[in-house]
Each structure stands twice: as C-alpha cells, then as structure tokens.
Amino acid sequence: MFENLREDFNTHQRDPWRQGVWVMAVYRFGRWRYKIRPAFLRRPLSLLYKFLKIGVQIAAGIDLPCETQVGRRLRIEHFGGIVISGDTVIGDDVTLRHGVTLGLRRTGVAGAPVIGDRVDIGAGAKILGPVRIGAGAVIGANAVVLCDVPAGALAVGVPARIKKHRHPTLQEAA
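== Serine acetyltransferase ==
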C-alpha cells in the first residue's frame, strides 16, 4: 500500500493539495483494509473508509470506489465530476480529466469498461457499458464511447467514432 501511495504522490507532482492525491490515498486504504484478518479488526477500518470516502467525494467531487481495479499511476488531472463504477478496470498510467464517467450503460445491466494502459481520457467523456479501450488510445473531450476502441486510436463525438488509428511503437507496447 505505501509503495503505491508514494507512486501516486509522485504522479501528482508531489503536491499534497491536488485532489487526485486524496482520492488515491482513500482508494488505496480501502483496498488495503480487505487484507486485514480477522473480521472484527477490519470492521472499524471499513467504517473509517466509508467516512473518508464520503469526505473525499464532497471535497473533491470524485467517486472512486475501492471495488474498482486501478493500476499504477492513475492521474486525476482536474477537480470534480468524476464517477467511476465499482466494476471498472483501469490500467497503468491512465489520465482522467473532470467530468469523466466510467460506468454501466444501464442500471441493473452488468458490464463496465476495461481501460488499457496509457489511455488519455478527455474532459466530460463518458465510457459506458462493457467496452474495451486499447492501450495508448485517446478519448476526446465530451465523447460518448459505447463500443470498443482499438489500441492507439482517437475516439471523438457523440456517439464516439474512431478518427485516426496509429499503431503503438514497440517501446509504447512494452
């Protein structure tokens, strides 16, 4: 947990006032508490997590539940309006900007996005349903993504369309 926290802090330019640092610290704590055995020791930590999560939601406007699978170095660029479903999977080195939603297409229908490594998601973008976003893809501002986006592609529009596709170099794919 502490290695991940240090990495998250460095990802946010070592600035303790960036809301992304707060959100990631509460997220990492929430994931870590599941490892505590026995259950009677975990319960007070779970209660503390719930209060911290609500506090960070109010202060930062970002909802990142600990059930979400987040890779390393998630960068949350801007304050507010970010909602992420607990079923979402996020890869390494992903960048999120304000107003992003990663979630289910409809309530009660299973299937959340899987975001690859090094994906850049623009402000106001919505990625909904069981879609896969390939490594190195760029999702344009205010795009509504309802289908898979290949690696290295640019997706823009409502609904999103693939505008250009570049093949990642060997170094990027590694």
